[in-house]
């Protein structure tokens, strides 16, 4: 876990370095919405860089995990540490964000995800909690696996949280007649995002997703404790 943590922190620094360069070029006076015009070749590079990041994090989980549950748990653990330290390093080098409620663009695939910095930080801590429970009980010899019901809760909660990050952008799109140009890799996407300024984050939808995820984590822990109690008997 020490090396997984070190790997994830290093990835967080690499992500920060790229953003520092991009902001020096496109936001010399500080990042803010609406987004400035970026050449489509840079948009393509950013799109595939984000995809490559996910593949790298997934790869380390597959290499380090002993079974499917551990592989998934390590993947989300590395993702969480990477994301948290990305903001830590941004604060160190750019003194940004100004607060935990500062808006950020979180992801580009398949459309922009936006939200206050606090939201992905909360999600990252939740992911670390799930990883800790799975790894702890498995290393204690309980062979804890994520059951189908628990997978449904975790996946459903994750989709709700992701929707909360996209919701404000979709609300903005509903005010205009837009088709395929809503997608990040559309040739018409840049002028669309140039006019977009986030207005409100739906904390209720985000909290609902978090509660569903937490229900899945509680189910994982309760099942492991019940298995431990049976083993003692």
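Sequence proposed for the structure above (233 residues):
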């Amino acid at each position: 876990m020490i090396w997984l943590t070190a790997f994830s922190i290093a990835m967080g620094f690499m992500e920060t370095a790229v953003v520092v360069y991009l902001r020096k070029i496109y936001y010399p006076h500080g990042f803010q919405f609406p987004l400035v015009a970026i050449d489509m070749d840079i948009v393509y590079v950013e799109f595939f860089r984000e995809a490559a990041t996910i593949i790298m994090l997934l790869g380390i989980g597959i290499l380090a995990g002993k079974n499917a549950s551990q592989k998934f748990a390590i993947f989300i653990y590395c993702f969480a540490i990477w994301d948290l330290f990305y903001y830590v390093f941004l604060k160190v080098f750019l003194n940004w964000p100004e607060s935990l409620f500062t808006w950020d663009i979180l992801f580009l695939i398949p459309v922009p995800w936006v939200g206050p910095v606090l939201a992905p930080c909360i999600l990252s801590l939740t992911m670390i909690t799930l990883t800790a429970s799975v790894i702890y009980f498995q290393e204690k010899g309980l062979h804890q696996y994520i059951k189908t019901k628990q997978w449904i809760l975790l996946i459903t909660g994750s989709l709700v949280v992701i929707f909360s990050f996209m919701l404000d952008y979709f609300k903005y799109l509903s005010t205009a007649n837009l088709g395929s140009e809503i997608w990040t890799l559309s040739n018409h996407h840049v002028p669309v995002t140039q006019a977009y300024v986030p207005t409100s984050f739906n904390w209720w939808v985000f909290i609902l997703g978090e509660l569903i995820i937490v229900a899945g984590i509680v189910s994982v822990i309760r099942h492991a404790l019940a298995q431990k109690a049976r083993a003692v008997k």
